[in-house]
Here is the input.
Amino acid sequence: MTTSRQHPPVAPDPRPHLGEPLALDLLNTRWMSADGPRDLLTDVAGLRTWLSENDLAAEPDEPTLHALVTARDAIATTVRALLEQRPPDTAALNAVLDQGRIRRTLTESGPVGEPDVPAAEWLPGWLAADNLLELIATAPGRIRQCAHPACVLYFFDTSKNGTRRWHSMTTCGNRAKATRHYARKTEQAD
Ligand SMILES: [Zn+2]
Here is the structure.
């Protein structure tokens, strides 16, 4: 019997918002629930769920979890500076990026670039940090945090005119509309 070496089944992803680019999806491992702040990356089981959700073949273990949370902190600091329109403290993100590089080679079928991250536990965190560079190079102004005051989720605004405000119209957008509606009603009642 080798059951002890088999991975336990992956728990379903409990997060309210999925599908953002990797850097922002990593930030979205923290969210607000009705019971308060939640964090998917508090244990290896949560890490396994995150890796599976993002199709990343990395070892779900403590070193990977630690590296990924370190990368998340660095990405969060950088994005916060970006949103507040101040120059980011680049040291933390660059320390994560130092863990790897894109190795470019010429093959018979043409040039290829592949992530080269010698310390395997850094691969997911490095990929997320590298993805943030890509987003900043593409459209830094479209990296947003949901405008609802009780929501901490991030999204990359791919709408045509770039004026998206909510991580989801059906939850936060409608909540905000309902609050405004209620405020008007109470004013009228006064
Ligand atoms: Zn929201």
User: Anything to note?
Assistant: The helical segments are 22-27, 44-53, 62-83, 91-97, 123-138, 169-189. Residues 62-83 form the longest helix (22 residues). The chain is about 45% helix and 15% strand. The mean pLDDT is 92.
